[in-house]
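Issue 218. Parser rejects a valid record. Input:
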Amino acid sequence: MPIMAEHRWLYPIDWPELSKLIRFGRAKGRCEHCQRPHGQRVFHLGDGRWWDADRRQWRDGRGRRVRAPDAGVAAIVRVTRVYIACAHLNHDPTDNTARNLAALCQRCHMIHDAAEHRRRRWFNAYRRRALGDLLARLDAASAGSSVPRGTPAAGRQPVAETLSLRRRGFGAAASGAGDGGGEAGLRPSPIFFAIARRASL
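Output the parser choked on:
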């Protein structure tokens, strides 16, 4: 299976050689769960049973010999080309010990990773919702600010400078000034404090 771009840096530099050693050195080019051969087209029934042409017998999804299916199986038989990949059994790409690696065909690989894929989909959906809530809060804060949204950076105080001025008392003077004097320009936007608080976490 292809490696996701954000996970590529977790794999060792010699991953292609290590994967080849597991798939063709240890597993001899066969899936270590169902024994399907790499690169060959196999007949299967969609439920894990497949025809082993080398041994001329039917096998199940665990590579065990099973009885031949009933007559009329030709109506439901399918043909798939098998590709063997090297999988991490504990889903940790940094754990490359031999006992954590297995040569799996695409069917066995997807079955083994099904729970992990569900977890990642949930996590990605949760992250998108969290980012949406954060941006909504920042938009609400900027809507009530005295600095219009989209004001060029030159018209805003940098976050670090604004916080420094508030610590020295200028912010209080600006917020309490009723004459709109020179200190009013030091009044920061609430969005700056939201970003600063977020950055300090």
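Fixed in the parser; the record now loads. The first strand starts at residue 41 and ends at 44.
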